[in-house]
Amino acid sequence: MDYPAALAWLAEHYNLEAQRVTSATAPDLARIRDLLHVMGDPQAAVPFVHVTGTNGKGSSARILTALLNSAGLSVGGCASPHLERVNERITVDGEPLSDDDFAAAVELVAVVEPFVMERVGERPSYFEAMAAAAYGWFADAGLAAAVVEVGLGGQYDATNVGDGAVAVVTNVRMDHAEWIGPSLADIATEKAGIVKPGAHLVLGETDPELAAIFVDTPAGEIWRRGTDFDCDRNLLAIGGRLLDLRTPSGTYRDVFLSLHGAHQGDNAAAALAAAEAFTGSRLADDLVAAALGSVTAPGRFEIVGRYPLAILDGAHNPDGVAAAAATLRTDFRSDGPLVLVLGCNRPRDPRELLEPFAAAEPDLVVATAADWAKAVPPDEVAAAAASVGVVAQVVPDVADAVDIAVERAGAEGTVLVSGSLYVVGEARSHLRGAS
Questions:
Q1: pLDDT one-digit tens code per residue, 53-78
Q2: DSSP strand E in 176-227: where?
Q3: pTM above 0.85, yes or no
């Protein structure tokens, strides 16, 4: 199986990310468990950190991977969705698998799938196949650790088939309520499902009622934000943030983090606590400085151009957008025009995303849509912009939308692409000249 064949095989499977439906059958882990059992239960071969949360789990996972790498560990990564290429969903030491390696990982799943179908009577989903490919690759590669991001929720997510030595919960906000809601307590309960008996829980959520749901899990030890770990100082610096990060082992002072936005300080604190929980010791200060000073997070307030300033941020829910808008307003706003390129996916209400951005007073919203089944039509995005008092222009193609935004912003202005990781991914490929 080569890379195109691997992608074609995956495309044959049910993919919730691309479906227009708003409800589904009762969640069940039977297919993924059976699939992995036929593969030899690779999820049990590599100790891993399981990461969930409404916002920040992607950045936290990348920071954690960098920290574990700095400690000398070879680290696998499993994340979704991808920005530009499907390979990004499975990584080793922060780098996506090569086309050949990705195809080999998928091929192993394809080989055993018929045996599973005989047993359970149906194919695994796209996400289940991807999770199985990731766990299989990590085991075959003999990695020392893996950082696994939950795709949706936690308890019934396809990644939740192993015993994560450490569980990380960044926060709980209102998102995907149609699947794991409707209340915040329901969402928290779903996310709490990743905490296995005896696991070390790094809990970033501070709301007392929601935190109580996680405290009631079978975790062996719980470290809580504000009590056991925190970001005690968080200052704007050239190219990122200057932080003081506190963990149970003490404080790491004057640590430079090469990511933008005050919210990344919270992500760094959770990731550092998780690294200590996983390794069982304090990390050397110089290793922490090296890891945090060089970490990258593509599509998370990523600077991809200077004249105009071009920023990519895959904020796709109101809290994420609020963080992006605050970062733009406090850290980057210039005297030139601000042009927002925005597209989002169902069931997202574009007005929910535009209201926080309206506070940044954009001169223009270029309404667009990714090439994705769930994309909200651009004219609906434009209508939402008008409803919050922002001038909008409809440009259906993302690449064309970016070009128009760059022209309108001029050399002294700012272009921010946001609203959907799929829009951000298409814009990133265009701006970086990728095919």
A1: 999 999 999 999 999 999 999 999 99
A2: 200-203, 221-224
A3: yes
